[in-house]
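Give me the 3D structure for Sensory transduction protein lytR.
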Amino acid sequence: MIHLTSKKYNCIIVEDEPIAAEILETFISRDPELNLIGKCSDAVYASNLLSIHEVDLMFLDLHLPVVKGFDFLKKLKNPPFVIVTTAYHQYAIEGYELDIADYLLKPIPYERFVTAVEKFKYLIEAEDALLEIAERDHIFISSGKKQIKIILQDIFYIESLREYIHIHTKTETFTFKMPISKIEESLNPNMFTRIHKSYIISKPKIEVKSATVVQIKGKNLPIGRTYKPFIDL
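Predicted structure for Sensory transduction protein lytR (233 residues):
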């Protein structure tokens, strides 16, 4: 996805409270880079919108009828960036585990909305600039104004911690601010595989493996339950 000078990010609102949805729509209309393509009050309608349109950002309320927000999000195979909206602060930790861009508590002040959208733009621009694959044996990853070259053969495993990833290589560890799912999309699945929400490993670097753990570079990495059926080690 390449955004040129006049950037437009498609977004949807998933919110069953009409007033809350209207407030978000008003906030979105003030940002010329945001293009609202739909509002929906439940997960079924949201799924339809996501299947029809290319969506960059979803404003997701957690307390939806029938299917709750996080349950809906967990079922999406390639979710867009998500800004969660809720009146309940106790769900924040679970939200960060799902790689959401930000978490807004209702009632949402406009300034806080702007901060969340700026965070989303930072993340999506990092993704856009992220992976320029010059050749099959290496990738370039943007860090500030620099492009850092990483040899794929040198990567042992990639670890996610909140909005950062740590790429552990033969000689050093590189840290970048981006979701792990974004770098996963750029890696050759014959060489790399996701074994856990927090780990991608290089298959040739496995030293020991079992049903629940793989050992790489002397470190035991857990195999997540949801990833087990899809892993070919």
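Residues 131-230 form a domain with the OB fold (Dihydrolipoamide Acetyltransferase, E2P) fold (CATH 2.40.50.1020). Let me know if you want a second pass.
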